[in-house]
Input
Amino acid sequence: MSEALTPAVFHILLALATGDRHGYAIMKESLRQSEGTVRLGAGTLYGTLQRLIEAGYVAEAPRAGPRMFNGRQRRYYRITQEGRDALNGDVERMQGLVRAARILKAARGAAK
Amino acid sequence: MIDGAAAIYRTLIRLYPHGFWRTFHDELENDFADGSREAGDAGGAALPLFWARALADLIRSLVREWLRTPWLLVLIVAAVLSVTIFSLTALQVARLPALLSRRVRAGGDPNAEALKAIVVLTAGALIPIAAAILASLWATAVRRRSRSRRSLLSRR
Output
């Protein structure tokens, strides 16, 4: 069974799974995909990104030209294959938990 | 007001460990500016709420990032070492006049006893200095190691 990712790591990897993003876009995407439950602060985000880069799950995206957002140059991040594997492993782990919970719920319903 | 808050935030993020600050300060400042602008546009309590959240995150992440560095351990060890050595030296110096007069009364040579006292005092002063030099050398070596680890995230 794969290791459980922390909510911050899970949402950062999930935000990057659909394309390269800069830090602010990762924060906004995490908030959107978690329906407002995961609000990553900048310090938490960049600390986690640094650890993900060190672990080889995320890399800085190479720039073809200046990448600007709101008039400022931004650093973009990209998920690596190891990051995708970790994300997929965690999704499968959670799916397994949901399946187990459904089976338990169905068994309780049948027993009533 | 937003500019003032941005200036305060810019100052506060300098409290992060230097490597973290050097790598991410531009992005932290940009994100704070963008977040402030968006919250300001939203109106109402959005802006103070954004600042309160930013401050709470700053405090949490400051603790987390400092705990990741060896510097916290270096500071604790240095503080414990300094207090211990200072206390021992102070104790030694405080006891010296009594020790000296007792030995002289017991028939010792006043000059020889004074010389011993000078030796003890000099050693008491030199030990903390030597300890501080050794601690600095160790801290420098630790810093070099952590710098080479941080090269994984080099600034462009």
